[in-house]
Amino acid sequence: MEIKRFLSLLMVGALAFTMPACGEDEKIDDGNEQEQTPDKSMKGSQSGISVSKPEVTDVAAYSAKVSATMSSLDAYHSAKFCYSTNADMSGSKSVACRLYTDPTFSTELPGLASNTTYYVCAILTSSIEEDIYSETVSFTTSEVTNTDDYVGPDYPDDYRNIAGWDNRDKWNLSNVHDPSVMLADDGYYYMYQTDASFGNEHAKGGHFHARRSKNLIDWEYMGGTMKEAPSWILEKVNEFRSAQGLPVITNPQYGFWAPCARKVRDGLYRMYYSIILDNNFGDGKPNSSSDNSWTERAFIGVMETTDPSTNVWEDKGYVLCSSTDRDGQYANTKNKWEQAYYYFNAIDPSYIITPEGEHWLIYGSWHSGIAAVQLDPATGKTLESLPNPWGKSYNDIKAFGKRIYTRKTTSRWQASEGPEVVYHDGYYYLFLAYDALDVPYNTRVVRSKNIDGPYLDMYDTDCTNNGGDAFPIETHPYQFSGDRGWVGISHCAVFDDGKGNWFYSSQARFPNSSSDTWAPNAVMMGHVRSIVWTEDGWPLVLPERYGNVPAIALSAEDFVGKWEHIELKYDYQKQRVAGEMTFAADGTITSGVWKGGKWSFDATTGILTANGVKLYVKRECDWEASPRRATIVYAGLGDHKTYWGKKID
To answer: By the number of CB atoms within 10 A of the CB, which of 162, 348, 402, 561 ranks highest?
Structure first.
């Protein structure tokens, strides 16, 4: 996104880095360490020492105890248990054990998911002998019938002490920005992102960094998918500059922004990415900004892989670039940003395959708005050949796409970007990021029966042809009590699990605070939230992050008590703050902004109606509680606002 110049962040000191491993660690080119699957054929060493297959006991919903016995303590001073949801032990985690005088060693396997099958093996490790592996056994955690024993995710929101590169195995969802999430054939959700991190630590490991998860809570960092900017980008920009009579540039400053990854078909995945050149001045002189012109030129490329677990992608080159109807005028009149010279800016791609099998790329930011261009399914490139990306009118560059959304028809400095398009139940939903990313960033959504529009909001505003602020508001800076809250919550990925469950993922930032001088707004924590759909087909992002809380049926009695309630009314640069509200057992609301109103719950539809507003409910994790625990949350729509709430007592 264009405001990513903001991401020149405070450098953070690196802490010591240790990676738990199953099998030998293998060094790969980007400096990251990668675990290998345990070689289960190794049952012993030349000394004849062996280790028994693990015995699993005290199996619960979220934990289990495991033990094993070695035949001799000679030469072996440590051991570990590796466990995974995959029978081949890929993506395994490990818990280390020290060996003393007792040949039997044991530990608890923490952080398990309920009603899930795990595979576990024991490994003896030594500095002078080969590792010794046990047989692998499996067990299944118990199903949860209540939330009394629910254990919430325990990774920290304030990750600044582990933000350094040497602690990347601990990041989980730390240092996430502009995520794209896809579900692959191997059962993993893969997440890719903009090059951004607290202290710019990501710069040590390539570009378009990847991580993966089986449960959307525990994420394994995988490293960069691209080592350096492809050579075609500089070649292409100088090809265009030469055609316009501009001097060649040789040393641009690159930005690696906002990829979008999708499964195309079995055995093929595509990632569209945007790379910008940030000192592309009209006179070709780096660091020269005599006219204060906007200097960015952006390119979208595509790469492919047959297996995202390898984290190896093959670059397929140029798709399109920023285009202008201003006849190639790179220089802008001083500070006249509202008349920016691009028509479409080639960043923030979103890729969709329609139910009819058409392939489309949705992209763009600020400038004139968001574009849709059809792609060739075979190549992933534009279906129509592209002319030079400059002309005297839109008709000269219309092959670069059709405008499907604009916030303002009268300005090209309109603070909307980060499109994400998905198809659901007959509509294409276009999610958009509004405003600058540091604090006011918020998410809106519009929808259309056609991929290329017109896109309307919930009040039938035609945002394709007429422009306008879109509603509903999906996310907004907010604060529940007892917590600093979150700001900058947007540029989202929207995806489903193939079983009817939908999710929203984005970055979020801490608000600035006079008592916290350690760059709080540079924190970029990845959030994953559930989406619920209203009766008339609008998505609602839930107020608390996804925590895999058991989906136990709700009854009216569950809603009696104290709640925190937030009205997500658009409030530029400000957090919307929660207030307390009480639902009494007699169906009345006895405190809060809806005091005097009534409430009722329809177990058939799962809708809570309070003060005349339909609220959509779900069991979720209370992330502000310590320790985190299960609660109930709601989301609903009002007059140009969204309501969020969670039960606190």
So the answer is: 348
* Confidence at residue 327, expressed as pLDDT on a 0 to 100 scale: 79
Instruction: Give the tokens for residue 152.
Output: 């919430």
Beta strands across the sheet bearing 599-602: 589-591, 579-583, 561-569, 641-647, 629-637, 613-622, 607-610, 599-602
Cβ-contact 346, 296 below 8 angstroms: no
| Six token digits for residue 462 | 């035609």
DSSP 227-267: SS--HHHHHHHHHHHHHTTPPP--SPPEEEEEEEEEEEETT
Residue 238 phi, psi (nearest 5): -75, -30
What letter would DSSP give residue 395? H
Helix (H, G, I), strand (E, B) or coil at 624: coil
The answer to whether the predicted template modeling score (pTM) of the entire model surpasses 0.90 is no
Residue 452 has what DSSP assignment?
A: T
Residue pair 138/56 in contact (Cβ under 8 Å)? The answer is no
Tokens of 485: 């809250």
b/e burial code for range 300-328 (CB count within 10 A of at least 16 → b): bbbbebeebbebebebbbbbbbbbbbbeb
Q: For 316, which DSSP code?
A: E
Residue with the two structure tokens 């009394």: 148
Q: Is the peptide bond before 308 cis (omega within 30 degrees of 0)?
A: no
SS3 state of residue 167:
helix
Report residue 102's pLDDT band, with 50, 70 and 90 as the boundaries: confident
Q: How far apart are CA 324 and CA 330, in angstroms?
A: 9
| CA pseudo-torsion sign 636, 628, 113, 494 | positive
User: In this structure, are residues 479 and 578 in contact, taking their beta carbons and an 8 Å threshold?
Assistant: yes
Q: Are 613 and 607 in contact (CB under 8 A)?
A: no
pLDDT at 285 over 60: no
Burial of 154 (C-beta count, 10 Å sphere; 0-12/13-18/19+): exposed
With H, G, I as helix, E, B as strand and everything else as coil, classify residue 33. Answer: strand
27, burial (CB in 10 Å: exposed 0-12, middle 13-18, buried 19+):
exposed
Residue 20: pLDDT over 60: no
**Half-sphere exposure of residue 428, counting CA atoms within 13 Å on the CB side?**
25
Alpha-carbon distance of 346 to 370, in angstroms, equals 10
What is residue 647's three-state secondary structure? Answer: strand
Among all chains, which residue has been given the structure tokens 């109606």?
A: 609
ω into 156 cis (within 30 of 0):
no
Q: How far apart are CA 545 and CA 547, in angstroms?
A: 6
DSSP 8-state assignment for residue 386: P
Render pLDDT for 323-365 as a digit per residue (tens, 0 to 9): 999 876 554 445 566 677 789 999 999 999 999 999 999 999 9
Burial of 550 (0-12, 13-18, 19+ CB in 10 A): middle
Tokens (6 digits) for 353: 């395959």
CB atoms within 10 A of CB 574: 15
Q: What is the DSSP string of 559-579?
A: G-EEEEEEEEE--TT-PEEPE
